[in-house]
Design a protein that fits this description.
CATH topology of one domain: Cytochrome p450
Helix content: 40-55%
Shape: globular
Strand order of the largest sheet: 1-2-8-5-3
Strand content: 5-15%
Order of helices and strands: HEEHEHHHEHHHHHHHHEEEEHHEE
Number of helices: 15
Structural class: alpha+beta
């Protein structure tokens, strides 16, 4: 029988001295108690899963549901329960409906389709860096480069006017903030839903080549489903990639020997980005929720039907049994089994696009600005520790 968690077993643990790393208590759990019962903010309990093989097993097992409206679904923060209301995005659905909606989008994110976007993305990168250089140092790499780049990319793909970027970036920031007031979180959710429903209605009568315009013409989707699919692509399509670019830049500036490896082997940027994804895992710090539909044994622990699970990819991605010296950043290592994009049927649909943007952004940034360095002490950088997507609030740089 499971024991009642003590005060030290709450899910939200104190951040350690390294802002890139998962909470030390979570890392200790991986070796000491890899499937551990923890208390959530609302007083309920869930199982925290931290070992690589166990996280992978949960992600790949259809006996664990991703549907947030099911009773008992774990919300680490009480303000997140808005997800259970309204029209869910397909990542919060199980098959067959999840697969039905996802199939409508896979053609836009194939390797071949994404590769055709390389020249356009490179042109965007060069343009943003041109503006940054023209304005002169110092600059905020988040505001001037890491955030606008993926925002513009996903806007062009969806057909969302880029001039509305302040609106959706601010709502996305609130949605990602686990410490935000629940009323503010729900308002941000509703604002985005209304905005995208209205945009879809405009495109119904004046279609363009964007994804929203194509979705709204489908008779097998409701307007609410079009808005929820669009919201997922818009928010995930810019916020996660923006934070990964800024985190990776800060990590490389903090580890000059690793930056030297990147500069010395730019042709290996693809593999090096995989190691950065493994080590940073921006989506994996706050937990990825699932609900057991039946009794399942995970890592020797029976998880009963109706119990919640919080998988911790950021912790799993540092598992020494899979990645030797997993706690260290080593751009020469083999990181291809990382779980930064998840695993199984809910694996990130846009991972190919994210990889291309990150690869080109880092490669071009350090080639064009060889003297790039922090414009403030590292200890003064403000990290988004209270966020669903780990990242930086700003990154002051000079060159």
């Amino acid at each position: 029988m499971a024991t009642t968690p003590g005060d030290q077993d709450v899910f939200f643990a104190q951040q350690g001295s390294c802002p890139f790393s998962p909470a030390p208590a979570h890392e200790r759990a991986r070796s000491e108690q890899p499937v551990k019962r923890v208390a959530l903010a609302d007083g309920s309990y869930a199982w925290m899963v931290t070992r690589h093989e166990d996280v992978r097993a949960v992600f790949g097992d259809p006996r664990f549901s991703a549907e947030a409206h099911r009773p008992g679904f774990p919300f680490p923060n009480a303000g997140r329960n808005f997800i259970a209301k309204g029209e869910p995005s397909f990542v919060r659905l199980d098959d067959p409906e999840h697969a039905r909606q996802r199939r409508m989008l896979t053609g836009y994110f194939t390797v071949r389709r994404i590769e055709t976007m390389r020249p356009r993305i490179q042109a965007m990168i060069d343009d943003f860096l041109d503006r940054m250089e023209a304005a002169g140092p110092p600059a905020d790499l988040v505001a001037d480069f890491a955030l606008p780049l993926p925002s513009l990319v996903i806007c062009e793909m969806l057909g969302v006017p880029y001039e509305d970027h302040d609106f959706f970036q601010e709502r996305s920031r609130v949605l990602a903030d686990t410490s935000a007031d629940p009323e503010d979180t729900h308002a941000a959710w509703s604002d985005l839903a209304q905005y995208l429903e209205e945009l879809a209605e405009i495109m119904r009568h004046a279609p363009d080549d964007g994804i929203i315009s194509r979705l709204v013409q489908r008779p097998d989707l409701t307007s609410g489903q079009v808005a929820s699919m669009s919201r997922l692509l818009l928010v995930a399509g810019h916020d996660t990639t923006a934070n990964m670019i800024s985190l990776a830049t800060a990590a490389l500036l903090r580890h000059p020997e690793q930056l030297a490896a990147l500069r010395g082997n730019p042709e290996s940027v693809d593999d090096m980005v995989e190691e950065l994804l493994r080590w940073l895992s921006p989506v994996g710090h706050a937990g990825v929720a699932r609900l057991a539909l039946e009794d399942v044994n995970v890592g020797g622990q029976t998880i009963r039907a109706g119990e919640g699970v919080l998988c911790m990819p950021a912790v799993a991605n540092r598992d020494d049994t899979v990645f030797p010296q997993g706690g260290e950043l080593d751009l020469r290592g083999d990181a291809h089994r990382h779980l930064a994009f998840g695993f199984g049927v809910h694996q990130c649909l846009g991972q190919g696009l994210a990889r291309l943007e990150i690869q080109l952004a880092l490669q071009t940034l350090f080639r064009r600005l060889p003297g790039l360095r922090l414009a403030a002490p590292f200890e003064e950088l403000l990290f988004r520790h209270n966020a669903i997507v780990h990242g930086l609030l700003g990154l002051p740089v000079t060159w």
